[in-house]
Amino acid sequence: MPPWVCSGMTLPEALRGIFLFENLDEAQRRLVAEYATLLKLEKGEHLYMESEDALAFYGLLEGRCKVYRVSGAGDEFIIHVQGAGDVIAEAAMFDVKRYPASCMAMEDCTVLRIDSRGFTGLLLSEPALSLHILHAYSRRLRGFVTALEDLSLRDVKTRLANYLLRNAEQEGEGLLCLVPFTKKELATLLGTIPETLSRTLRDFKSRGLIDERNGGFVLLRPDGLKAYCSE
After folding, report:
1. What parts of the chain have a pLDDT lower than 50?
2. CATH code of the domain made up of 11-151
3. Per residue in 50-107, pLDDT tens?
4. pTM of the model
5. Which residues in the chain are classed under CATH 1.10.10.10?
6. CATH 2.60.120.10 domain range(s) in the chain
7. If DSSP codes are grouped into helix, strand and coil, which group holds residue 101?
8. At a CB cut-off of 8 Å and minimum separation 6, what does 18 contact?
9. Is the CB of residue 79 less than 8 Å from the CB of residue 67?
10. 154-229, what's its fold?
């Protein structure tokens, strides 16, 4: 496990960067901070491994992590790609004894470690704090429902178009979607196989919708991609 470090911000300030705690008042964040510690991870370093004791959950302040499992045949299946503001391994709050998957940094990360037993005790003693947490998760649940709809009701072209549009950022006069993982990992994330993803990318390129750039894709015709999402 990497060493715990202090990055120059106070813990209550750091907690504001995590969706679960962003709407708490200062006094509530100070209470949570009693059970939090800052951590630095380097790219490729594991936050935790599958089957390790689940003693904490985590808030990701900077960087990206992937949560994944490996099959008996050695195939990796990505469950989530988590970015800044996300919470990781929150099941540890609810009497889960071991982590059900592994988590690895896809780039250098700053993470908050929150002791699960201490935080659970805090929720029991602070009903107002518990309500804030439930409200935050109700908002996040709506996002999970959308993700499930993508996987179960939409084809690969629609899923890919959605992914590119949701993750694109303005660069100059255009939009750029950085992809911090391999095409195999992206295929797994989209619920398809690499061959199907490659065919779909070639189709998008031939239609002038995207162009590949090192580390991602330039969105040449965002409206054309949006047309797939509305079908």
Report:
1. 1-7
2. 2.60.120.10
3. 999 999 999 999 998 999 999 888 888 888 888 899 999 988 877 678 999 999 999 9
4. 0.73
5. 154-229
6. 11-151
7. coil
8. 59, 60, 61, 85, 86, 87, 112
9. yes
10. Arc Repressor Mutant, subunit A (1.10.10)
